[in-house]
Amino acid sequence: MRAMVLDQPGRPLRLEQRVDPQPGAGEVRVRVEACAVCRTDLHIVDGELPVPRLPRVPGHEVIGIVDALGTDMPPGIALGERVGVPWLGHTCGACPYCTSGRENLCDAPLFTGHGRDGGFATHLIAEAAYCLPLDLPGDPVHLAPLMCAGLIGWRSLRLAGDDARDLGLYGFGAAAHLIAQVAVHQGRRVYAFTRPGDSAAQAFARSLGAVWAGASDQAAPVALDAAILFAPVGALVPLALRATRKGGRVVCGGIHMSDIPQFPYRLLWEERHVLSVANLTRGDAHDFLRVAATVPLEVRTTAYPLERANEALADLRLGRIEGAAVLIPA
Ligand SMILES: [Zn+2]
Ligand SMILES: [Zn+2]
What we know:
By secondary structure, the protein is an alpha/beta fold. Helices cover about 20% and strands about 25% of the residues. The longest helix has 13 residues, at about 280-295. One zinc ion (ZN) binds next to loops.
């Protein structure tokens, strides 16, 4: 197998030939068809999010085919089946979070491409119970971004509240372009906030159903019921609070964010909430995949051969990608 390996944060990934791994108890080997590139991968490669051990293969938006089974397989996983491998790769099942339906907050989790090797590779080993059987139509390149941009976007949308009819999305990248379509399908009005001057992203947002698109430092045309921040920019938190009505919510969808600047208490007052989204549960994944099967999602991707992962990361860092970057093993 081949993998793009992170030896040290801040250094480019290195192509490595490895012996094909064998799945252990409860594990499968997945032959990767496509793996999308998430901003979290960028945080890992840039050293903003430490990984437990190096070297590490990033990548947690995997679509692939089960090509070897370990022992003790859970029901429902078969050789030759297409699965998705998301960020949540293992939970302990015993901590207070796992036993209360909040496995996304597990005390001893393993995350794909973080605590175990991920999908910037031709193959990976995954725990079968955390693989998502896929009976969605579509090609693997278009399915891959659903595995994190879609899933985390979905959890963020849920936390924004069912009553959020006027919804602001800050940062119109991979996650926002998917979740905007889901929100519009649900009858919400979407307001897209991009980097000032990014008229291409604003036009992209309007083309996907946003009723308004503008710069993040612009006032929204209405008071928002909720806002979701996908851009990892702490300075957006007070801006989004300012744009949100009494009792509204500001949901931070990323795993890492620059510092939030000091802001006057009156922006938070009147029962506004600021909250973060951490990881996902398998329940979220099943709910979102059900939704994705009914909403005709337009998934915008830019494909790169696996060996050009560094180029994909650089393009994401510079905001040069419309939609999602996806790596494809040759
Ligand atoms: Zn991700
Ligand atoms: Zn746990």
